Amino acid sequence: MPLADQLDYSRNAGLVTVVTQDAGTGAVLMVAYADREAIERTESTGEMHYRSRTRGAWHKGATSGNVQRVVSLEADCDADAVLARVIPAGPACHNGTTSCFAGTGPAADVLAVVDATIRDRATTLVDGEAAPTYTQRLLTDRNLRLKKIGEEAAEFVTACADGNAGRATEEAADLIYHALVALRALGVGLDDVRVALAARR
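Structure (tokenized):
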């Protein structure tokens, strides 16, 4: 049975509360409302639709491009609220932050911040730029990228073999950063890794 048919719209003037969560990180992105039509559109399109009390029906990202691709929708025990697990294409908040809960959103998903920074470096890259950033140097130099991944992987393995938790953590951070740069050079990023991991579950 479609979720739209399972919900109780009678308690809040035809609306249900929607808590939208990043499926990859678990970070709460936003809280909004939906009516039956919005839930039906969400289910039929695979992208989040909401109902605003002031602006009416809206498709998240229709204007900004920051769509939210649905991973799962789940009603609560009273059937008057929905947990929407999504893969966001950009910030959830109109203020440009990852989450409407700005104090915790980016911190809850620091990898997304790093990935967004790498993406920004890639899009602002200018051939022959006099002073490219380190990330831009990596993006334009395949051999340097691959060399750094090998070095960081070896250092991570050594730290693990030595039982040095602090150093292993630092080396893991370096390895993840260099891996994200290498992925961006191939035209993919963190969201693609999340999708691959989610598929394995």
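The first strand starts at residue 16 and ends at 22. The helical segments are 36-45, 105-108, 110-123, 134-140, 142-161, 165-185, 190-200.
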